[in-house]
Amino acid sequence: MARAKQKPVAVMEVVTRLLGRLQEEQVRRPGRASLQVFAAFDAIGAPVTTHAEPVHFRGGVLTLKVDGSPWLTELTFLEAHILERLNAALPKPMVKGLRLRLGAPRPRPPRLPPKRPLTSAEQAAVYAWTAEIKDEAVRDAVARAAATSLARGPTEGTPPSGPPGPLMAVSPPVEEPEEPELRYGYGRREVDRWHLAREAAKVPEE
Question: Which one, 56, 113, 141, 146, has least CB within 10 Å?
């Protein structure tokens, strides 16, 4: 069966299509400047970042998604202050204005507590946990992970006997069955124990 002839496509047409797709991907993907502006906005902190989320940055205008009309009005009044803080946190001033629109921001992950210096007991514990690991790269990685976990935790008490890890599931206590009560009798028929005692105490007749 002969294959149907396909209409030849000009090389320029193929190149134009590919360039169009690349441009669309670049528009959807945030560039370096956008990432810098987004990071500077996150550094502003609550309550602004709790109720607003940066969507895209283009032409010097940062678009924010705001979770309600009250905060839309509030951020409108705070625009000059927000722009000042944004440009101060950037390598050079880039944000010229804000565009606000209503929408539900994505929930933010909880922020980790700041690190603290390890105590001497914790440093000794990390060394003890990793001393038996022969591979140097693995040993260093485990030591860094354990030190980071301890540095974000409380200082009260002594370090655990093992490296930090997921909590083990604790199985519920097993209830022991109660022992059955002992009965006087034969089979399933109960016998009055007091009757047996009286019969045993009788004096035989002469």
Answer: 113
